[in-house]
Design goal:
Layout (H helix, E strand, L loop, with lengths): L1 E7 L14 H5 L2 H6 L6 H22 L10 E5 L4 E6 L2 E10 L2 E7 L7 E7 L8 H17 L6 E6 L2 E6 L2 E2 L4 E6 L2 E7 L9 H4 L34
Antiparallel strand pairs: 1-5, 2-3, 3-4, 4-5, 6-11, 7-8, 8-9, 10-11
């Protein structure tokens, strides 16, 4: 299973003043709250924790449709390099968070090495911002097609039980896929499918880390809905 989330730190919804006074205690565990700085430097740390929780929730929903998004039940433990885990009950997912400017991008996976994971994030253009859901799909398909040397015209993304599914030449591909967008950023994560030119996958994927190619995945930035906001679609993993 896999999940990802992006947060645009420059978006007004991410600002300190936009949060409800009880936001921290609704979203974070007591330990996480104590780890947050009390001054304005807490902005980045807060959304690092949030993005990891949201990414893990998406992974959990892929395992069970019964999972309900209760942020305090997703416990984040990251080291200084922003690598670590997110725990939900007895389940624990390896997690990595990357920051590029105003973009926070979190990815969780079943494998702590993150081998076989394609992921990326980038800023959307002004035109793309008119339909960010479509933009993130185009970005994801273009990135996957480039990495796996496939024709983008043969790929599409459909929702099956509200979960995005990669379709190749009209047939569902056994590949976990997670999409997200927030503010001016879009991001995705995908476990590399063994399809088409499958023996090339090992050459395309960077074992032990995020697979950002110099062509399609050079921008590390991301986003998704923020909880307790009108745009949250907890049952829709986009």
């Amino acid at each position: 299973m896999i999940g990802n989330d992006v947060v645009d730190l420059s978006d007004p919804e991410s600002s300190r003043d936009a949060r409800h006074p009880r936001f921290d205690h609704r979203v974070f565990t007591p330990e996480e709250v104590r780890s947050l700085p009390t001054d304005h430097s807490d902005l980045q740390k807060r959304w690092i924790l949030w993005s990891a929780k949201e990414a893990a929730y998406k992974a959990a929903r892929r395992e069970s449709a019964e999972v309900v998004f209760s942020p305090t039940r997703f416990v984040v433990e990251l080291d200084r390099s922003l690598c670590g885990t997110v725990r939900y009950g007895i389940r624990r997912w390896p997690a990595r968070v990357q920051i590029d400017g105003d973009c926070v991008h979190a990815v969780v996976s079943e494998d702590a090495s993150f081998a076989g994971i394609l992921s990326g994030a980038r800023r959307l253009t002004s035109t793309e911002l008119c339909d960010p859901s479509e933009a993130v799909r185009r970005f994801t398909l273009s990135s996957i097609a480039t990495e796996l040397d496939l024709a983008i015209a043969d790929l599409r993304i459909e929702k099956i039980d509200r979960i995005p599914q990669l379709i190749l030449a009209g047939r569902a591909v056994p590949a976990a896929l997670s999409l997200s967008h927030h503010g001016s950023y879009a991001g995705f994560a995908c476990r590399a499918p063994r399809i088409g030119k499958a023996d090339r996958i090992s050459q395309c994927v960077t074992a032990g880390g995020f697979a950002h190619s110099s062509r399609g995945l050079s921008h590390a930035a991301s986003s998704t809905s923020i909880a307790y906001r009108p745009q949250v679609e907890q049952g829709d993993l986009r």
